[in-house]
Amino acid sequence: MARRLCRLPRLFPLVSPASASTSAAPKLHHLPVAANPSPAPRLPSSAASPSPAFPTLSRLFSSSAGGSSMVVVGSADSFSSTLKKVQDEKLPAVFYYTAVWCGPCRAIAPLISKLSSQYPSIPVYKVDIDMEGLVNKLGDLKVFSVPTFHFYHKGQKTGEIVGADAKKLEVAMETLHNSKKSGEEPHTGGPSLLCLPCMSLCRTLLAWYTLMF
């Protein structure tokens, strides 16, 4: 089974800087050079450089590409002001906590890009946990693994998903979108409430208990 999340303790290096600096540098092996090397053939000036087969991360997470609602948070101050604005102005939002070194984050990235384009009215704030000055804030928000997704509706955190769970993310985004349209409170992840049949059964048992005693 593939890994779905990365624990934050992996942020610390496994090898100390002192031991890394004392390690021997690899030796270089020089190839023999011909006495009269022939000049390399020149490419025609009209030849265009080949384009990369896959989009770069900066293009993938660009908030201006193809109507996507993805917004890359560039600093700890920007993150604090964005979170405050979402809470004060009672806005819907998704905060996506990730890291460059996290494999599950890279695996789920195409789906996040797709969902941010599918629901352009819900901003998705991509937050790199390695940004300077963000450690204390992450502790306050109880972000201990990546990827982690926090869902906000009317300025309040209404749900959380930890790990690269594609099915849960799709359901959570659709629920938040529908709740934004209807004005109801969504339940995107976290502890689930009792289903309607269970609630009806509880009411029936409570009424029976009241009549008996």
Features:
213 residues; alpha/beta; 5-stranded mixed sheet; 37% helix; globular
Plain-language structure description:
Residues 32-178 form the Thioredoxin domain. This protein has seven helices and seven strands, in the order βααβαβαβαβββαα. The strands form two sheets. The chain has a five-stranded mixed sheet with strand order 2-4-3-6-7, with helices on both faces. It has a two-stranded antiparallel ribbon with strand order 1-5. Helices cover 37% and strands 15% of the residues. The chain is an alpha/beta fold and 213 residues long.
Unreliable sequence segments: 10-35, 43-65, 190-202
* Spatial strand arrangement across the major sheet: 2-4-3-6-7
What do the pLDDT scores average to? 73
Please give the alpha-carbon distance between the first and last residues: 53 Å
Biggest pleated sheet: 5 strands, mixed
> In which range does the helix fraction lie?
25-40%
Please identify the oligomeric state: single chain
Q: Identify the overall geometry.
A: globular
Order of helices and strands: EHHEHEHEHEEEHH
Helix tally? 7
Radius of gyration: 25 Å
**Beta-strand fraction estimate:** 5-15%
Counting helices, strands and paired strands, the structural category is: alpha/beta
Domain Thioredoxin: 32-178
Pfam families: Thioredoxin (PF00085)
Keywords: Disulfide bond, Electron transport, Redox-active center, Transport
Organism: Urochloa decumbens
SSE layout and pairing:
Elements: E1 6-7, H1 17-22, H2 57-60, E2 70-72, H3 76-88, E3 93-98, H4 103-118, E4 124-128, H5 135-140, E5 145-146, E6 148-153, E7 156-162, H6 166-182, H7 196-212
Parallel strand pairs: 2-4, 3-4
Antiparallel strand pairs: 1-5, 3-6, 6-7
Helix pairs in contact: 4-6
